[in-house]
Amino acid sequence: MTTVNPAGNSVGRPTPITNATQLQKPSGMPVHKYGRYEAVDIPDRTWPDNRITVAPRWLSTDLRDGNQALIDPMSPARKREMFDLLVKMGYKEIEVG
């Protein structure tokens, strides 16, 4: 598995957040329709009480070899075409295998 990132960082490390990496296009998902779930008060736990307040940084894993366990796997040319499409869509980190 290889991580491809345009910043040229070492493989396996996430790309640091910069002005260039923040240009990912926003999702069209209507997030305003969804509210928080109701909290359950259990005093002995700690991590479930943490709240996600911002969206995670998304990266594409569509080109990993594990996703190619199909009857008709993608050829290298088709993988390249999909890579170019993901770049055009605004992905800044793409995992390739």
Produce the secondary structure layout:
Elements (H helix, E strand, L loop, with lengths): L1 E3 L55 E4 L12 H14 L4 E3 L1
Parallel strand pairs: 2-3
Antiparallel strand pairs: 1-3
Describe what is shown at a glance.
With 97 residues, the chain is mostly loops. The chain is built from one helix and three strands.
Give keywords:
little secondary structure; single chain; 97 residues; elongated; three-stranded mixed beta sheet
Task: Explain what this protein looks like in three dimensions.
With 97 residues, the chain is mostly loops. It has a domain at 1-7 and 55-97. The chain is 14% helix and 10% strand. It contains one helix and three strands; from the N terminus they run ββαβ. It has one helix spanning 76-89; strands at residues 2-4, 60-63, 94-96. The chain has a three-stranded mixed beta sheet with strand order 1-3-2, with helices on one face. Strand 2, helix 1 and strand 3 form a beta-alpha-beta unit. The N and C termini lie close together (4 Å).
Element pattern in H and E: EEHE
Q: What's the end-to-end separation, in Å?
A: 4 Å
Count of helix runs: 1
What gross morphology would you assign? elongated
Strand content: 5-15%
Which structural class fits the helix and strand makeup? little secondary structure
Helix content: 10-25%
Strand order, sheet with most strands: 1-3-2
Q: Outline the low-pLDDT stretches.
A: 1-5
- Radius of gyration from CA coordinates: 18 Å
What is the averaged pLDDT score? 73
Q: What characterizes the major β-sheet?
A: 3 strands, mixed
Q: Say how many strands there are.
A: 3
